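Posted in: Structural Biology > Protein-Ligand Complexes

Title: Requesting predicted complex, pyridoxal-5'-phosphate in pocket

I'd be grateful if someone could produce the 3D structure tokens for the following input. Sequence and ligand are given below.
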Amino acid sequence: MSDRTSDRAQLLSSAEALVAAWESRFGSFEPHPATIPEPARLERAWQAFAVRMEDHYPFFHPSYAGQMLKPPNAVAAAGYLAAMLINPNNHALDGGPGTSALEVEVVEQLATMFGLRAPFLGHLTSSGTIANLEALWVARELHPGRRVIYGEAAHYTHGRMCGVLGVEATRVPAGPDGRIDLDAVESECRRGNVGTVVLTLGSTGVGAVDRVEQALSLRERYGVRLHVDAAYGGFFKLVADAAEPLVDPAPFAAVSRCDSVVVDPHKHGLQPYGCGAVLFADPAVGRIYKHESPYTYFTSEELHLGEISLECSRAGAAAAALWLTLQVFPLLPQSGLGPMLAAGRRAALEWSDRLAGSETLTLHLRPELDIITCFPSAVSMSEIDLRSATVMRAGMAADDPIYLSLLGVDRRTFTTLHDAVLADAPMARVLRSVLMKPEHELHVERLHARLEAIAGSG
Ligand SMILES: *Cc1c(COP(=O)(O)O)cnc(C)c1O
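-- Reply #1 --
Done. Output follows.
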């Protein structure tokens, strides 16, 4: 059996060797003395740094099942390191000829995953927030003065970005399952002046999947744009495409008929932070980005990615890391990335079954993806709130720790889903767990037993 950390060390040293070999092709030179660290100072700094780095939760470990956090795959880390040591800038072809080409290829692979057919337009961004900002900006340019509709469970940055763009935004309710209420969306469309509807594939709170396939008719009937925020859930398209899909394939299949989609490779795509992506079905939106900068270099007639991106400098290393990762773990349902997401999905299904049979814990909502919500069984919302917070803290402090997170649930949702619970508070926090590491599949039994033990003793 291979050892996780020695495999990583080997990959990282391959990255260093690759760059050293490349550098040696150019004439050797002495580094400027000013750039050389003073050994004793470096030693002290490194020691202090090691101490500061201890202050993190063990995101890599299966016992960490709290937030949407995990380290990059070692392949991604090695790809990133190698490219980062060269430090290309994917703003322009002159800044990063090699990595710009890699970016074009990975964007094609993402488009293929979503079933978007060429010609389309897309590129990587530094985050899901920036990717959504671009999609909303393009939406505003195409439908100036018209509203953006998004759901209560949509990511909080949609409201913020509409503010940045000066676009009027209307927030519509979500059902108790976390999905946007399409009747509410439709009545807003009927009221008029709607330019764009934002749908979420995998809400950040509970992983709710909006019924994209049911929203498609809004596009025809009201002429609205449909933007899909699949920052979290986008890669579950691979699970949806499997021979035995473990998620409902319909909303995922409908993405190809929407106007734009965002996905975060730095969430479920095994990448380090700094890697989002936005894709547009109609490449003609590229004209909106047109700019003339005296700084832009022109050694090539080809399209510079900076000409179709809101951001200027972007890490070529992000494209390199994703490209290398997808060569090793391609975007396929039955091999590569697909089975990794399927493992997390199976973990969520298994844990929710265990929770449904538990006395100590109550399943809050059946998971649609790999996010679990539950709470210590109690008679009232106020007690559930208190006990969830206590259990979360006790879990982290235990000798054999388990790391979870909390999610605030409003009274309306709570009473709909749990009518026997006394609704004595406007809000109650419940326990939330994101099972985004394949290893969680092998640890569910343990995670559940630990949680039951902690909740039972509280
Ligand atoms: C994480 C997330 C975002 C924001 O993406 P960042 O990469 O954190 O900026 C937007 N929408 C959804 C659904 C998300 O899960």
